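Predict structure. Chain length: 280.
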Amino acid sequence: MRIERSLIALVLCTLMVAALGSPGHAAENRPQQTLVFILAEHEYRAWRTIPEFGQMLEDKYGFQCEYLTSSTDDKDPNRFFIPRMEKVKKAGLVVVFARRRALPREQMQILKDYLDSGKPLIGIRTASHAFDANLVVPKEGGAPVAANVRLPEGLEQWKTFDKDVFGCNYHGHYEPGIITVVTVNPDKKAHPILTGVPETFDSPSWLYEIAPLEPTTEALMMGKIPGKNAEAVVLTNTYKRGSRIVYTSLGHWEDFETTAFQRILINSVFWTMKLDVPKG
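Prediction complete.
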């Protein structure tokens, strides 16, 4: 009798596990989605932090991640080229972590076609000035000045990428080394991207100046440093055909070590792709 009860209990447990599913394999009920990361910057170690983050997305949520990594040398003439850019054409989501690059016209057109089709995009940190290659914005604001970068023929810039796609206006940053206090916008607490995100935390990312925002944006989280106005650090926007866009000016390599920032990015991946944001 005792053996029969044990067998019955084992069967019941097996049926329950099968019904509930394993948290680490929640993606089994949906087609695998490909995330394409465009990595082209030399300041914030994206070549290391993003693949580590992507590995978690693959292991825990079943996504497939592709990394298009350009040169990290800001003097390398080959930095104005993204290897395997054609991968963007079939991406379910594109994530841009790039800084001051121009692209061959055909590569820039691939990105524009992707966005024009209504697909989602996430921008991290320097993505606000990803494709403005020959202007420099002084610290603490000021009018853009020429950086005297002579671009080779056949390259294209997208100087208004910040305004057009993210709905913000990058024009500099405050002094590095000052901790940014990040706080949830009280009016946006119920937004899915803020699921499981603490209402306040500290970030080592020095604060970017990105105001004013376009009317189409939603500022989900604000950043503040002493003596300066608060700036949006996590915001959403819509692009052509209603594509979902997320931009965060956070993205220092130490941000990736915090559960708060990881959760913001994970939630943003799911939300932009119109998937249910994980509760746990």
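Summary: The longest strand covers residues 231-238.
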